[in-house]
Write a structure and sequence with these properties.
3-stranded antiparallel sheet; 8 helices; 14 strands; 26% helix
């Protein structure tokens, strides 16, 4: 029997009516982990409850309003603030909202299952924010296109499972993350290297958007508080939705998502761990891979605001730093 995906934040965000075949309960660990291994991606429901989602979302709104004090949350006409076209927001990487999501027990449980250890460190990557461009056409986002975040020539094996937690519903209207199923497999990677030989000496950022891959790509539908996971060897990228929002919905961001990944602490050497601690205190954002210094190609930076003060971490969050 088909069942709803996840728990909506409110009555204006109904569950997806039919469960896509890539959506699993967090508790069904053997099944979802098998799908991730076999196909390179998965969506987990039950990672956060309605209250956790609402709290994290409010913290993000607080951060945006503090930075742009003319904004009124209930009035989209005031939402004119600087935001790059792709909606990749590095200055939210060390925000209280981002850290709230990183500290959710359900998120850690998923990554602990993947790596079979509780000793994990978390990524401190950008948040994703799209304003509703059906309200103002100037806000229509673009995306980075299909790409890899792990160069198949220099990093052929499993190195990182990336993640993303949407705080608003991901639909065909909004758009969100799309993946090319099975593109992480060895056979697919050997074929990729033949057609992208020029990337042999490039960094981890490997743009590979073309008509063939776009036809194969799948938009991953998800509810607020779900955890989207994909192997870094999987071709993926953002997809802008139709933008035709139903009448009567309350004002909200079209997309608000926290990128989150965890890897074993032992993979990060003393220098990396020290720079992570220092970067947190300074407000520096890193990339998707926790055990690296965040210096791979494709990493987006933001200048640190004068007078920056780091958020106060809980004991659980501190362990992930």
């Amino acid at each position: 029997m088909d069942v709803a995906v996840g728990v909506p934040c409110d009555d204006s965000q109904p569950d997806i009516a039919i469960t896509p075949p890539y959506v699993f309960d967090l508790a069904d660990e053997a099944t979802w982990h098998g799908h991730l291994q076999n196909h390179g991606y998965v969506v987990l429901r039950g990672v956060a409850d309605t209250e956790q989602v609402a709290r994290a979302k409010s913290l993000f709104w607080d951060a945006v309003i503090v930075r742009h004090d003319h904004i009124i949350r209930e009035d989209p006409s005031t939402w004119n603030f600087p935001c790059n076209e792709a909606g990749i927001v590095p200055w939210l990487a060390q925000s209280a909202g981002a850290w709230a999501v990183r500290g959710w027990p359900g998120v850690k449980r998923a990554f602990a299952r993947i790596w079979r250890t509780e000793e994990l460190i978390v990524s401190m990557d950008c948040a994703l924010l799209w304003r509703p461009w059906w309200v103002d056409s100037k806000w229509k986002p673009s995306t980075e296109g299909l790409h890899l975040d792990q160069n198949p020539f220099s990093k052929p094996g499993l190195d990182c499972i990336q993640g993303m937690v949407p705080l608003v519903q991901v639909t065909e209207v909004s758009g969100g993350l799309q993946v090319v199923p099975d593109s992480h497999l060895d056979e697919a990677k050997e074929a990729f290297k033949l057609t992208h030989a020029h990337m042999r000496s490039s960094g981890d950022w490997c743009p590979c958007d073309d008509d063939v891959l776009r036809r194969q790509a799948l938009l991953l539908l998800a509810n607020p508080g779900d955890l989207v996971l994909w192997d870094s060897r999987t071709i993926h990228g953002g997809l802008v939705g139709t933008g035709k929002s139903p009448e009567g919905e309350p004002a909200d961001f079209a997309r608000l998502a926290v990128t989150v990944a965890m890897t074993p602490r032992e993979w990060a050497g003393p220098k990396v761990q020290q720079q992570r601690r220092e970067g947190f205190k300074k407000g520096t954002n890193f990339n998707h891979c926790p055990h690296e210094l965040g210096s791979s190609s494709g990493t987006i930076r933001a200048p640190i605001r004068r007078g920056y003060q780091p958020v106060t971490l809980t004991d659980e969050q501190q362990l992930l730093l």
